[in-house]
Write a structure and sequence with these properties.
Blueprint lengths: L2 H21 L4 E7 L2 E10 L2 E9 L2 H30 L9 H12 L1 H11 L6 H10 L7 H17 L2 H4 L5 H11 L29 H12 L5 H15 L6 H15 L3 E3 L6 H14 L3 H10 L1 E3 L7 H15 L7 H14 L1
Antiparallel strand pairs: 1-2, 2-3, 4-5
């Protein structure tokens, strides 16, 4: 495992543990009494600031539940410190995000469920947008095969990986590409994240992609990202390069889209998503591209019909304020009863800007 892949793997582990920590109700327990009833509050620190949260009316079960969470939180924090120590030993430097990239990450998070749903349909998974949301947000599976469920969960993990602020500042290269495929194909192939050493066939065409060579892939990716083209054009070139190279045993279409978006988001330029109503056209153009190696038509299609641009106009103060407010309310949403209304307001503001 190269140093870059090791760093990315550690960053992914850290993100998973931080996410789990955020889900836990834990902290120093305080029991308050009012009108002959007892209520539980917990005290924690968030970004160095002391925060008090109301948990609920006192019960022994709830009290013991928080005690158990406190023990788990200690273990998670210890694991995070261990990961951070390993990252320092690898000379990893935590870079700050630019405002444009931070806004793009929020934009991508906002449309994450819709993006994953579109990719799931492209993959041939039988699902609906509500079922996809239920699975991603609540872990609820409705009439879905285990294999399809795992593919959607893997897409979620892969997107969360590239949207990690530590990963998005990493160079879009072979190491990131392999990590994306590893997450996309986790649980399906033991070779996930490694270039294939066996021939593959593509449905719908007789064209057979040659066996990939690691050194060539690294050079080709560097050549694309170093070209004088616009960053949007380079991200589309990355997508088309990966999808036709077919360098992995499986998951190449999913990997190509997420990998290209890593580059695009790192430049604060938006998203590339193949909408459900454009999938058949994309598949047709993809076969044409496979067989001819002429990317003109599919390139124009991706650029004109699949690109969500947030760079066209400078984000307004209202959009920035809405993003900040949304972020705060996500952290403290138990205080707000109009959280969904704010979500809807945010979507309207985003569309207007």
């Amino acid at each position: 495992m190269t140093q870059k892949i090791l760093i990315l793997d550690l960053l992914n582990q850290k993100q998973i543990k931080q996410f789990r920590l955020e889900q836990l109700i834990y902290g120093s327990i305080e029991i308050r009494e009012s009108h002959n009833k007892k209520y539980i509050y917990v005290h924690t620190k968030e970004d160095g600031v002391q925060v008090t949260k109301y948990v609920g009316e006192y019960t022994e079960i709830l009290y013991n539940y928080i005690l158990g969470n406190n023990e788990e939180a200690k273990i998670i924090k210890k694991d995070i410190r261990s990961i951070e120590k390993k990252l320092r030993q690898l000379d990893y430097i935590d870079e700050d995000l630019t405002e444009e990239v931070a806004i793009n990450i929020d934009f991508a998070h906002k449309y994450l469920i819709d993006t994953i749903y579109n990719q799931a349909i492209l993959e041939g998974i039988t699902t609906t947008l509500p079922d996809t949301e239920n699975l991603i947000e609540n872990g609820i599976v409705n009439n879905m095969k285990f294999e399809d469920t795992l593919k959607i969960i893997n897409l979620k993990h892969a997107w969360e990986f590239i949207l990690n602020k530590h990963v998005i500042t990493s160079k879009t290269d072979y190491s990131v590409l392999c990590m994306v495929n590893k997450l996309v194909e986790e649980g399906f192939h033991y070779t996930a994240g490694m270039i294939r050493s066996i021939p593959v066939k593509i449905s719908g065409t007789t064209w057979v992609p040659p066996l990939p060579i690691e050194s060539e892939i690294k050079e080709d990716i560097l050549m694309i990202t170093s070209s004088k083209k616009s960053n949007l054009d380079k991200s589309i070139d990355l997508l088309l390069y990966v999808v036709r190279k077919q360098m992995f045993t499986d998951g190449n279409k999913r990997t190509s889209v997420i990998f290209a978006n890593h580059y695009l988001i790192s430049k604060g330029l938006g998203l590339i998503v193949i909408p459900v109503d454009k999938i058949e056209k994309y598949k047709k153009l993809l076969i044409e591209y496979y067989e001819s190696n002429n990317k003109k038509n599919i390139f124009e299609f991706l650029k004109n019909e699949c690109y969500l641009n947030i760079k066209g106009n400078k984000p307004s103060k209202e959009l920035k304020d809405a993003l900040k407010e949304l972020d705060y309310m996500k952290k403290h949403k138990e205080k707000y009863k109009t959280y969904n209304d704010v979500d809807e307001l945010f979507i309207d503001i985003t569309k207007e800007n």
